[in-house]
Design brief:
Elements lengths: L2 H15 L4 H8 L3 H13 L4 H13 L1 H25 L4 H49 L4 H20 L1
């Protein structure tokens, strides 16, 4: 791998797994923020979305169900407030019907989005979690192989992100 390719891989790893800001990564590697941004954009165009991989990594730690449940719960609190306004507000019947139709549409879209979002990110999150557990296992049980497995796992993580992010 070229020196530039190695820096790009490390920058991606810092962004995804360490959740570093682009400005911090740029400073760490002596590159401009624009350069790191171009690497990120080029990776996305090639099918490796750093943001999706980062989200998947976060979710792998917390569990996709927790994140999706939190979003849906917040939405439902807002929906209840709208329903209360419909019941108690001084809106005309036509306005109330319009509000109910809009709320129903929003609820349908929310449910569909949650359903579509969770499986894709969940698959990548599980894959990344398994890789982390494998690395931990090797470090504990076969420490003499830790450097070798790390050399393999990091680029394989990039490959997984390409597979599950497209």
């Amino acid at each position: 791998m070229s020196e530039r390719g190695e820096l790009q891989r490390k920058a991606r790893s810092d962004y995804v797994y360490r959740r570093m800001m682009i400005s911090t990564i740029a400073a760490a590697y002596g590159k401009s923020e624009a350069t790191i941004g171009r690497w990120k954009k080029a990776a996305k165009e090639a099918g490796d979305d750093w943001d999706k991989a980062r989200t998947a990594h976060v979710i792998a730690g917390e569990g996709v169900e927790v994140v999706v449940s939190s979003v849906v719960e917040d939405f439902m609190i807002q929906a209840q407030a709208i329903l209360d306004e419909i019941k108690e507000g001084s809106h005309s019947t036509a306005e109330k019907v319009g509000m109910l139709v809009s709320l129903s549409d929003a609820m349908t879209k929310m449910a569909a989005s949650a359903k579509r979002f969770a499986p894709k990110v969940s698959e990548l999150g599980v894959a990344q979690d398994v890789m982390a557990k494998l690395l931990e296992f090797v470090r504990e049980e076969f420490p003499h192989h830790a450097a070798t497995i790390l050399e393999i796992i990091e680029p394989f993580g990039d490959r997984l992100a390409e597979i599950y992010s497209t």
